Amino acid sequence: MSTYDFYAKPVERGTWDVPAAGATRFNWDYDSGRGRLLDLYQRGKDKQWDATKRIDWELPVNPVNVMELPDDFCPIYGSRQWDVLSQAERDELGHHLSAWLFSQFLHGEQGALTVAARIVESVPDMDSKFYAATQTMDEARHVELYSRFMREKIGMYYPINDDLARLLADALSDSRWDLPYLGMQVLIEGLALAAFGVHRDMAQNALVKQLLAYVMQDEARHVAFGRLALRDYYAGLTEAERADREEFVVEGCYLMRNRFRAQEVWERMGFDVAECLEFTEHSPVQQACLV
Question: What pTM did the predictor assign?
């Protein structure tokens, strides 16, 4: 059976095509490079690991409570909607929330894979090309890992969140070479690193803690790469150019916040979506995940 058969909501078959803009840049200077970026490149080579061999895939996972958390970690715990649910309905909700959360992790990693490859093409510096090549391999491994986890342990997928898709499209479709950096390395990777850390610390399931810990080792390098690679370039921008990028970041932060509201789950479960969103916005667990 195809992955498409396991989506909680129908997904159009085929590819999602985002028109790419900007030049593919070659650089014939193979000797110069920034020491800190080349050090990250070396660490990227040294820290490669195999998801098939490094992860203990025999560890059990309960698909209705993947992270083995108590009920009060549900975003709508204590709400009117939660109180009217039977135990079977709460278990079903737990399955959908787990599928939704790890689906967004999976889709985000595919976005990171695509953007990393785009950075290899578009960035003008050879040292950045070197490091982005190691990141491309990292992201492929993350897609492999989350895809296997979803297939074998959860058995259900959700489509990519509209807000995440919009941010990816904005970063890829801009002709300026630094926008994929800014959108992916700084915004998406930075917030993903924080989200992975929060869920690793909350999770009581050994397999979930393990896979999140290994992914975080890579993500920390990716965030450092984005900051180092853009630092020198942004120092030379005009005030108007910096303001334009600041606007992109602010809009991106709103999009990234919205992606964690689980709206697709409330819709799929047939709940009062507005009520669930309002409650989720102020729930303690949601506040912890957005810090």
Answer: 0.91
